[in-house]
């Protein structure tokens, strides 16, 4: 399997030049960072050897004070350059991390939007949120600091190794002796951290899912006085996350003490062997001081390997989850056919449909809805009404048969030719945080305030809107929590009307309103339905009695069809439903 970082390198090839620049800036910064130790050795060499020093030979300056002045100037330049390149490197890495984070979040969110409704319905919202938000943030943190640290550590070993090699091969071998132990320990810790951080990311997903669901269902929690029970559930998953993190922390924290012992060995060896060589005259005093400092420079930064590995493993666990999400393929793929004008004729031809791997919900359903007519679909709960609407909106495709719009299979159409020509009012109305006007104009953001007001009037919403503190500029709160169910339904209806669709689909659009408001909405629907196809799903039969044709579903099959008068005039499921809802029992007693 391709490494996650390799997949990112392939996916975001447009940033390769910036990545190379960031590595180059980090390299120059590290070179400048190593220079002060060399200058310290040169200064000691000047003090000890005077006119015979390396600086004297290089510059042709015999005076010790003047040599030290030159070293001070060089030192100042090195520090200024190191500061400059440190700033440029940090700026480049951080901007790169932010840009990749931005692009990856947008790509992940855009991909999620393109997945089927069935996928969303089968997956906790909090889990998806954890990937799109928290996992992407984990990657950003690694790109911001982790990559640069890893590269700096590698450069440190190369540069310091070059200085040691140029000075003494014996000391080089002794100083580098602990590094294989550190590398082996790093690989061992890496293997043991991978599964631990996978468990941590899964625990984060569970917490996000539970908290997200509970915040959305706060009214239910309070109404059942279940606060303590839900707090216990959150405590349980949070404790699982804490324990998973503690397990990972125990493994990563043990890494630093191991490196400290390795540093002790390397530093002590250089201190003793190098000192003896300086006393024997086989190693210059200035060079000895450089190597002592360089041993610290070589080994001490390796104490941050544990931190970098921690960032790395967290990021890789997150990247794997992000890429797994991006690998999800939608089952319903957009077609490429465009209808220049949609008349609104709908037809279902021997349609079978169901959910996931479950049994069929619709069994060989055939229906024809001529353009411009109002048709209703009724039936008991579980009859298949919602499944039928999912097919019309192409939230799912039939297992067999066809769903046609103006004679064209929906699978051939672009989303704009299909959903762009449909006004949909769901049973569970969703309003976005913002103003009433914003929500009505959601389907047509460019609509004027007058058009918004007219749509609200047609949906019998204008009166209650003008009664709110700021009218159309009143904030509705998250998911419209400040409004009643009936008010939300009327705003959703206004939103659909404003779009001026060729097909209007209403799923229990009046279920949450009183009889007076229902009558007002029915009058409005009679007006807005003129010239457009309207499909209505309802339990309340008074809502659909004026439809051109009513289709009665029972156990996923069409068992009756006709006008209201035709259906009530003969025995059948519709007549029975009408009798129950009007209070007329089978024996004729009300």
TrEMBL record:
Subcellular localization, as worded in the UniProt entry: Cell membrane
Which keywords annotate this record? ATP-binding, Membrane, Nucleotide-binding, Transmembrane, Transmembrane helix
Entry's transmembrane regions: 173-189, 258-279
Q: According to its record, how does it sit in the membrane?
A: Multi-pass membrane protein
Where's the ABC transporter domain? 346-580
- The residue range of the signal peptide is none
Q: What is this protein called?
A: ABC transporter ATP-binding protein
The uppermost taxa in this organism's lineage are:
Bacteria, Bacillati, Actinomycetota, Actinomycetes, Micrococcales
């Amino acid at each position: 399997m391709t490494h996650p970082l390799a997949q990112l390198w392939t996916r975001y090839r447009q940033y390769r030049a910036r990545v190379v620049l960031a590595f180059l800036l980090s390299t120059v910064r590290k070179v400048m960072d190593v220079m002060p130790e060399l200058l310290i050795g040169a200064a000691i060499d000047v003090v000890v050897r005077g006119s015979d020093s390396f600086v004297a030979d290089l510059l042709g300056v015999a005076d010790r004070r003047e040599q030290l002045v030159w070293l001070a100037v060089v030192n100042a330049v090195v520090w200024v350059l190191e500061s400059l390149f440190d700033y440029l490197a940090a700026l480049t890495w951080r901007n790169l991390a932010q840009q990749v984070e931005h692009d990856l979040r947008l790509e992940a969110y855009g991909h999620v939007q393109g997945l089927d409704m069935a996928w969303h319905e089968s997956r906790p919202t909090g889990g998806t949120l954890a990937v799109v938000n928290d996992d992407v943030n984990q990657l950003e943190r690694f790109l911001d600091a982790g990559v640069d640290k890893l590269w700096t550590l590698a450069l440190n070993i190369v540069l310091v190794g070059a200085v040691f090699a140029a000075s003494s091969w014996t000391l080089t071998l002794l100083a580098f002796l602990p590094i294989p132990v550190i590398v082996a320990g790093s690989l061992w810790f890496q293997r043991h951290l991978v599964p631990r951080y996978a468990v941590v990311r899964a625990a984060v997903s569970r917490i996000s899912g539970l908290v997200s669901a509970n915040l959305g269902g706060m009214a239910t929690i309070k109404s059942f006085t279940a606060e303590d029970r839900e707090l216990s559930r959150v405590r349980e998953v949070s404790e699982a996350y804490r324990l998973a993190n503690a397990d990972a922390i125990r493994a990563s924290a043990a890494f630093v003490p191991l490196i400290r012992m390795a540093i002790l060995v390397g530093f002590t060896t250089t201190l003793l062997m190098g000192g003896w060589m300086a006393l024997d005259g086989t190693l210059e005093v200035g060079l000895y001081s450089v190597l002592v400092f360089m041993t610290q420079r070589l080994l001490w930064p390796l104490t941050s390997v544990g931190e970098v590995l921690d960032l790395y493993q967290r990021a890789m666990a997150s990247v794997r989850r992000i890429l797994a999400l991006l690998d999800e393929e939608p089952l319903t793929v957009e077609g490429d056919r465009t209808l220049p004008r949609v008349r609104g004729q709908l037809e279902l031809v021997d349609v079978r449909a169901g959910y996931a791997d479950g049994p069929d919900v619709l069994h060989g359903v055939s229906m024809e809805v001529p353009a411009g007519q109002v048709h209703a679909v009724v039936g008991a709960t579980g009859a298949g009404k919602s499944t039928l609407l999912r097919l019309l909106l192409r939230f799912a495709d039939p297992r067999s048969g066809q769903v046609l719009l103006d004679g064209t299979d929906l699978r051939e159409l672009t989303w704009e030719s299909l959903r762009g020509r449909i006004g949909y009012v769901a049973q569970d109305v969703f309003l976005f945080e913002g103003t009433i006007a914003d929500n009505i104009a959601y389907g047509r953001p460019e609509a004027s305030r007058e058009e918004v007001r007219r749509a609200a009037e047609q949906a019998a919403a204008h009166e209650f809107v003008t009664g709110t503190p700021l009218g159309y500029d009143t904030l509705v709160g998250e998911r419209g929590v400040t409004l009643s169910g009936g008010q939300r339904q009327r705003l959703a209806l206004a939103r659909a009307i404003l779009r001026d669709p060729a097909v209007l689909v209403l799923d229990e659009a009046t279920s949450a309103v009183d009889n007076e408001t229902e009558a007002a909405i029915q009058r409005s629907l009679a007006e807005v339905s003129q010239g457009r196809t309207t499909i209505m799903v309802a339990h309340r039969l008074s809502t659909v009695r004026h439809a051109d044709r009513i289709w009665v579903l029972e156990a996923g099959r069409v068992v009756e069809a006709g006008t209201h008068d035709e259906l009530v005039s003969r025995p059948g499921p519709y007549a029975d439903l009408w009798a129950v809802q009007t209070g007329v029992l089978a024996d004729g007693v009300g």
